[in-house]
Specification:
Chain B: It is a multi-pass membrane protein. The complex is a heterodimer of chains A (300) and B (300). Chain A has 300 residues and is mainly α. Chain A has two domains: 78 residues, no CATH class; 210 residues, Orthogonal Bundle (MetI-like fold). Helices cover 72% and strands 0% of the residues of chain A. Chain B has 300 residues and is mainly alpha-helical. Chain B has one domain: MetI-like fold (Orthogonal Bundle), CATH 1.10.3720. Chain B has 13 helices and no strands. Chain B is globular, with a radius of gyration of 24 Å. Classes of the chains: A mainly alpha (300), B mainly alpha (300). At the A-B interface, helix 2, helix 3, helix 5, helix 6 and helix 7 of A face helix 1, helix 3, helix 4, helix 5 and helix 6 of B.
Amino acid sequence: MSNLTVDRPVERGGAGEVRRPGKRGNGVLGGLSHIALAIWAATVILPILWTFLASFKTNTEIFSEPLGLPSSMHWGSWGRAWEKANIGQYLLNSVVVVALSTAGTMLLGSMAAYVLARFSFRGNRFLYVMFVSGMVFPVFLALVPLFFVVRNLGLLDTHTGLILVYIAYSLPFTVFFLTAFFRTLPSQIAEAALIDGASHTRTFFQIMVPMAKPGLISITIFNVIGQWNQYLLPIVLLSGNVEDKWVLTQGIANISTNAGYQADWPSLFAALTMTIIPALAVYLIFQRQIQAGLTSGALK
Amino acid sequence: MKMPRGSARFVIGFLALPVIIYVVFVIAPYLQAFYLAFTDWRGVSASPRFSGFDNFTKLLSDPTFWTAVGHHVVLLLVLPLATLAIALFFAFLLNMGAGTKGVRGSKFYQAVFFFPQVLAVAVIGVLFQAVYRPDQGGVLNGLLDLVGVEPIGWLTKPNLALWSLIAVLVWQAVGFYVVLFAAGMANIPKEVIEAAEIDGCGRARMFFQITLPLLWDTVQVAWVYLGIAAFDGFALVATLSVDRGGPDQSTTVLPLEIWRTAFTYSKFGYASAMGVALFVLSLTFAVLTLRVTRRERIEF
């Protein structure tokens, strides 16, 4: 969060500057490693910064002086990207779809995981394996039948269809992670609540969910980012003539295809900037949680 | 918890919706894919016609299929190796061994390196179109122009295009693994490192004989993750490469061919067979990796 300002590396003199506890005499090495680290940081920052700047340039400026600064701030491209290229609409669609699908994923995923983690009944193991096995299969295997399932349900080219599919394909990891999480929680409090006459449903929502909050937050972040960044499912399931329903990734890819024909590069870069800035803002605010959420899959 | 009385209704109530959604949109399509792979269905006839192993024999003599498989082999070798080498290198630089809080600016570097991970691959594809532009107007060629190098057709030269795409995949993935490994290295007890230092252990030796073995579990998980990613590549190839998989199929991947075969050529049976092939390939990889890399776990 405040890391970016507090820990910004200061230009350092080089040899002997990096002092370490226990003094290992690695000044030169320390300096060299800062150079290596700074170079990689630059490769990450430069393309993004270039895009920001290009959105304020004119067509000519972008390609005649790719490394120059904009002569003046041309905000026109931002207006064109928002209005004519529909970035505003795509952004709104993405927000609506991801808000509903993540909420659905978390609700259904935690319900299933809780029952699978805490109740023994016939078929428990089978259902758990069924959910978790979804992590093994590449989505491309299901692509063709999925398209027809969604079409036969009359949900092709609808946000409802996309949301349901997002939920379904997010369940394996969500159930896997949350089942493990619910198993680690103590059961005494829930039992006490049941003895006091609370229903199972009430015990779940008022006792277990608050206790599982850390795990739920990690997986929510994981799902929000995964679903926000989906590209394959939208282009397959919103493939008809429904441009007003497109999500952001789809819209950006399309604008980039059209930018060449219309020779309006600044508004492509403005659109790109408008896509990156919200992600950057959310990242800066929740950096710690996002890193924890995304790496939670790899660290058991 | 043993199944308390009266909770059967609760269990069914909580499981019904997630199971229905999951079965309809995930399980059923996966099963159908295996069936469709043995038909010559083109989406028109009401019921697909069984065609035995026709699709698979056709697949084995399909040059496009083998080109794509060849690209996955390259990806499988280069993507994990390059990403892991760079990520381990930077994580080591950030921690200077292990067990300490890390070099100055460690948090800043990790924050910057990780950021591409939260961007959609489709967005990154569009971003890198500007980086890789074949004339001096591109970011990379603009930089090369400063030192007098002629513009390079990063995406238009058939023997270079795949490498340019792999570079982007590495660019995006490195930060994630730096954070993952840096966290793992920070968990290595300081005493282990100090003891090695007292014994006169050098930096390189420290890395290969102490840090890497103690981090082996995480590296193994990372290897599997990157290997699975090597069987995808769809979003980047679809948004960044010339003519989606070009020039002249030099960057095509199986997921892209599945998508194209199904939704451009309407060969749904054949596309499903490709999906099965992709599944078999990625499963083989996962099983082999887990076999080969299994080692004694070092407790610390």
